[in-house]
Amino acid sequence: MSTQQTSPPPDPSPAIRCRGLHKRFGQTVAVKSLDLEVRRGECFGLLGPNGAGKTTTIEILEGLTPRDGGEVEILGMRWESDASRIRTHLGVQLQESEFTDRSTVEEVIRLFRSFYPRGWTVDELIGFVQLDEKRATQVRNLSGGQRQRLSVACALAGAPDILFLDEPTTGLDPQSRRQLWDVCERFRERGGTILLTTHFMDEAEALSDRVAILDHGEIIAQGTPAELIRGLGGAHVIAFTASAEVSEEALRAVPGASRVATHDGQTHVTVDDLAPALPALLAAVQAAGGRLTALSTHQATLEDVFLHLTGRELRDA
Amino acid sequence: MPELSPLRELVMARIRSFLREPEALFWTFVFPILMAVGLGVAFREKPADRAAVGVQRGTAAERYLPALRAAAELKVSVLDDSAAARALRKGDVAVLLAGRDTLVYRYDPARDESRAARLLADAAVQRAAGGARPVATADDRERVPGGRYIDWVIPGLIGLNLLSTGMWGIGFGLVQMRTKKQLKRLVSTPMRKRDFLLAQMVARIAFLGLEVPPIVIFAWLAFGVKPQGSLLAFAGLVVLGAVTFAGLGLLCASRARTIEGVSGILNVVMLPMFVLSGVFFSASRYPAAIQPFVRALPLTALNDAFRAVYNDGLPFTSYWPQVVILLAWMVVSFVAALKLFRWQ
Prior knowledge:
The complex is a heterodimer. Chain A has helices at 54-61, 79-87, 105-113, 122-128, 144-155, 174-189, 201-207, 225-230, 248-252, 274-287, 302-310, and strands spanning 16-25, 28-38, 43-47, 69-74, 90-93, 162-166, 193-198, 210-215, 218-223, 236-242, 257-263, 266-271, 292-299. By secondary structure, chain A is of the alpha/beta class. Chain A has a 6-stranded mixed sheet, with helices on both faces. A 4-stranded antiparallel sheet of chain A has the order 11-12-10-13. Chain A has a 3-stranded antiparallel sheet with strand order 2-1-4, covered by helices on one side. The longest helix of chain A has 16 residues, at 174-189. The two termini of chain A are 43 Å apart. Chain B is an alpha/beta fold. Chain B folds into 2 domains: 6-42 and 148-340, no CATH class; 51-140, 3-Layer(aba) Sandwich (D-Maltodextrin-Binding Protein, domain 2), CATH 3.40.190. Chain B has helices at residues 6-19, 22-42, 65-70, 81-90, 112-128, 149-179, 182-187, 193-223, 231-252, 259-276, 291-296, 298-310, 320-340, and strands spanning 51-56, 74-79, 95-98, 103-106, 137-140. A 5-stranded mixed sheet of chain B has the order 2-1-3-4-5. The longest helix of chain B has 31 residues, at 149-179. Chain B is elongated. Chains A and B meet through helix 3 of A and helix 1 and helix 7 of B.
């Protein structure tokens, strides 16, 4: 692409910084004194269940929702004084925003490109999101994944420094998700910063350098995905159900066990290493006079981190 | 890459989204023509309970005033020269009685109503004379252009169409963009808000080219309704009316969050004008007490100005008050809409 990423003056200010962010809707507190710092060039994931305050937070940062308290700085600028300047540096993709049904891909991108003083050409944008074959297709005839890539192309029209993505892959099939992730990766390679909200743990893990886990409007954990998983104390999770109850004490005695939790009748034991842990666990079940009815193991994920922190699973939180 | 103009792109986006919606096209462009056909056929004769008879002041006709006034089936008005000619052309009087020495009936023989009024008036005059010596009369059957109901109703239909396409088009379109979060998406870019609102207006004016000429041409070919006055003045009024109604549409849509909400508001605003503003029958039929209100409505002002140009071929001096009323509505609704407009 011919146009460069805008290079703001070598400035130590982070891409996004907010402190003590606060927002309430009537009696409901949506965001509670939230602090966040996103460095230039990183992809930061805001992870949490529906209703955790992710969209409210990102829309405050985008300058679309007024906040009740706290400070926001975007690229060292403030919404109060520099709104129109900030806008030229941002690319925003909204959750559930639709384009005019009867416009074609090319027309929609042209429209958005016309708002920015600089940026990529319409052809470059279409190529970047791999919609070349669909350029003359009307929006109503696009698939969900194609629409979402069109939306990202519009967000990229002004060659932004920061790209905001709110639940970009919700409702997409696996292949469409991959294609969208690919677009994000290529934007990052060009030095772009991404702030992403998602309730998919795998998406946060795949795309983000760092994540913040949000629950009830508060950040309950923050760090790289690896750090957060390490924080669980183990790298593997054994999930099982048995015909008799096995005491938590017995399970804690399993070699390398760092955490035991029962959820929906299924017991999760987090361990360092499976090889010594599994035989010991089987013995504990037998000693309790029961039989295994189901057993599975997986590498610990952010899903397990969320379960550990909240006692709830993300999808039904 | 050549610089893209946001205003141009926004206007084109609006126009395209409209032109690619076949149903919208139908309602905007075909509906008024169907309406004209229906009314043109249905109202070839204008129903009148009493025949409206005009007596031109200072003519032989004045002598027969007592006789005419005595006839219960006649509604008599005494008119000055210029007012008399205009009343006849507009159809306010069905027949005009004048003449220097001999009594002359002036009327349009193509109108049933006028022929009937002439007979009724003559009967009253002859009856008063006692039948012994019939009063000598003459007929002036010069056709008066623009005197039929269809002549009168076409400008009203154009006004009505401008009102509904302007308000529905702008109001609906904007609220739809708001519910689909398109407006929110647009304000997240550096787009200037005034470009967006201006684009709605420009697109609206562009549609007029498709909206008004068909009905003018159709009325001309099918019913022989000819614009009497300046086409340029008429075009100017069309644009003024369209922009005024677009401003009202903008105002109605400035806060509404749902399609149902804006429909309700639009109906409340438009319904009184449908009824009161002299689309299908003259607004002067309403009682004097509410006339100031009726005359202040933007559609009444537009229809009156339209008819002054279209039917009567009058100069600007005769309809400038209506233009002022429209301008006032336009400015007030735009300013209010800009203050109230909700982008999200």
